[in-house]
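Intended use. Records like the one below are meant for learning the mapping from a protein sequence to its folded structure. Do not use them to infer anything beyond what is encoded.
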Amino acid sequence: MHRRDVIKTALGAAALASGPVRSFAQAAAGSGWRLPAKGQVQMIENSFIPMPDGVKLAVQLWLPATSDTRPAPVVVEYIPYRKRDRYRAFDMYWGQTLAQYGVGYARLETRGSGDSTGLLLDEYLPSEHHDAATAIAWLAAQPWCNGSVGMRGVSWGGFSTLQAAALAPPALKAIMPMSASDMRYTDDAHYLGGVFALTGLKWATSMKVVLAAPPDPQITGEAWRGEWQERLDATPPIAARWLSHPTNDAYWRQGSVALDWSAIRCPVYVIGGLVDSYGNEIPRLLSHLRVPRKGLYGPWQHGYPSPAGPGPALDWAWEEVRWWRHWLIGEDTGIMEDPMLRVYMPTATAAQVAPGPIPGAWVAEPTWPAPNVATKPYYFGHGGLHEAPQPAEDAKVNGAELVGLGKVEWVPFAPTELPMEQSKDDAHSVVFDTAPLGADLQILGAGALKVRVSATKPVAHLAIRICEVTPKGESWLVTYGILNLTHRDGHEHPIALVPGQAYDVDIPLNFTAHSFGAGTKVRAAISESLWPLVWPSPEVADLSLDLGATTLHLPVRTPPVVEAPMPIALAPPLPSDPKGWPRMNINKTGPEISVVETWPASTGEVAAIGESLSGSGPNVTLSMTAGDPLTCVWRAEQSAGYRRPGWDVAIKAQVEIHATAEAFHVEERTLATFNGETVLDLRHQEAVPRRLA
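Structure written out for the chain above:
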């Protein structure tokens, strides 16, 4: 579905625009509300919204045809991913879907992206938030608008939705953030547990391609070339910038709405997916906001609930229109009478059944925190997990063991990126199993490992994977957590470990839902790190665990006698074509390890504007010698192309990272050509101090 690198998003979504928008939930069980009759839609290809500093934001509009005489509300999606071409299929789909049911849709481009003027220099800058507030006010003041504006979006769009809401624009009446986070440092694509993540490399490479993309001459006219050159010249060394902020400092705190829950004053419907890695914000938003709120956690990857994979998907148009008509029109749709949180409870992991839909069932909680979810402790000892405390015992974790090849990708976008069967990684970890379960065991929430640990080096990590072990002995990843132990007292001010000294540390697990089957085992597998999910410690660090002072806490759900029915009907899942999956080659010859991931090159036609698209990546090559973390090298490359007769633009971005014990060494390159001639070859090299990273 939605990819933060955005190269394949519209190319893979062209089928969305090839047929009529359908609804599968006109008679959804348990709800008396019905979608209104479909109306005609007016689409406005491009308009500009003026900003106070003279910048103009480009916007594409879909309006109910009756809005000239009967003003309608409008919902904004605000992202830097090109509305005219790469994202056009999704925009056309959602614009038509919402507007035909009386809710206008505005697809707004961030300054310096697509056809908006100005410069885009980083994620989530204050100017971006204030631009959103200005655009919301402009939209609300249009004669075709009833004065009520909503905001929704996936990934970057989800972040911008939360961040705009934190400014409390008066016309913003409700929001729907999806696959996003309220805390940038801990729960986004840069750092995991205080450790630089492989996704940080990938996203840095992808974002450079986004930053360097040109405006469309069909909209901008002859000025496009000068505006493009300004973007190219201003393209920042974004990977080096992110590496230079290895703690939760002001850079990451800016735009993290979790720092002030009270700033959000409008109703919130927050969405996440099991196969995604954006989900930790759901329980936090539901617990801390003091506005009307709802949550949904479904069986899909990074993207919308429909079309969605691996599924089962939902007829999301029905639910989303119900939300907007309730809050933006004042129609009694009954949506706030439903449970606060709906969750898909799987009975297997996505990897077990890939590429098919995940087996399981929808469950509901009327409130969150849920009274029927309680923390259950498990105690470590004698190689097992037990329900009662065990005698004191130590366990040793060998930091030279390579663990993590079964979980390479933080956000899987294809079946080949899902966590593999975990037995090989388990064999190199310290493993603790429960006895076979006598009955099904549901978990719902974010667990934690409370551990007393010492290390042999000043910098060390600790990772824990929670797996379900089948009667056949297969091990499937359910959730995990990792922490740079120098961040044991918080991510703001790391403190070096004293070798040999024991520390009591809490390591949070990611929010999840899973039903362990009767006869299976719950496994806790502990290692020093997970490579290449995160960058390795600067030296091999062995760990010692005091098991008598170590417990695993899982959020165990007691199901009600009768589960609340799911009113949203199912929809066809997003088709998964193996020809579009990346190839993942893992080679291990002795201590030498390499991981090479290659996405198929993409091409596509945007017939409505006479344009051809191309792109590849992010393709990565990762290598390291086990037991020698300073040999770690990560490389990534991504490209994008835009072509019409006489207009042929190509962009390529490359990033490489290696490190000494003292510093990361980053090499970044952005190459741009027009009609085959180089117009930019921008290179940047920088040594960034590691600062206990």
